[in-house]
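Record pair follows.
FIRST:
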Amino acid sequence: MDAKKIGNRIKLIRKARGLTQADLAQMVDLTPKYLSNLECGFKLPKFETFISIANALKVDANTLLRDVLDVSTSTASSEISEKLAALPTEEQRKIMRILDVIINEENAKQS
């Protein structure tokens, strides 16, 4: 398993959520140094720690593992979710309205 890819994904999502290493470490009862080791790929988290990190970041396990999984059915939707989560709430609403229009138009074409 590629610890560096998993650690990098944790780091990217943490930053997208506006959290520092110290913030996330405190949320999951880790030391900032240990979290840094995870993000740098020097260590792999224990399963319980991995779940705690996913819950703290409000993402599913597949999102954190997508760079190391052979199957990636939800890669696009996870990427969209991450990008949306990094935006202010009002911008998220605007984009969701745009997506609704596009999806409705596509559904109308298929009917």
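SECOND:
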Amino acid sequence: MRVVVQRVSSASVTIDGVQTAAIDTGLLVLVGIEESDAEEDAAWLSAKISGLRIFGDENGIMNFSLKDIDAGIIVVSQFTLHALTKKGNRPSYIKAARPEKAIPLYQYFIDQLEAGLGKRPGTGIFGADMKVALINDGPVTILMDSKNKS
């Protein structure tokens, strides 16, 4: 699994003109699932994200996690995180998991985040045409891949 974690001062997801999630300070997490991913990948990433200390303390040092400041989180499925761009100009998404595999793992990831944070993340709808708005704070943007846990 690949994620892009963005620290935001606000973020929202809108589908067909209806807002499905909105937060102020917190994290926007874009999630890409590939065929070889499993529940262990989702569990590892959710634990890392829950404890990621990227929010400033009273001195502006990144010492606080999402849990420490009781901030919001939105999770959005993003199969394009697995785009292959080596050949030609049209990205290939052959490594991205098919919906029958990806949807249950996406839901499991959200459930794991909820268990770790004590609150349900806001979400979009898997596979929908979503309009994601955000104000990146910092900017702080972190890439993580469960295949590269070092």
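COMMENT: The longest strand covers residues 130-145.
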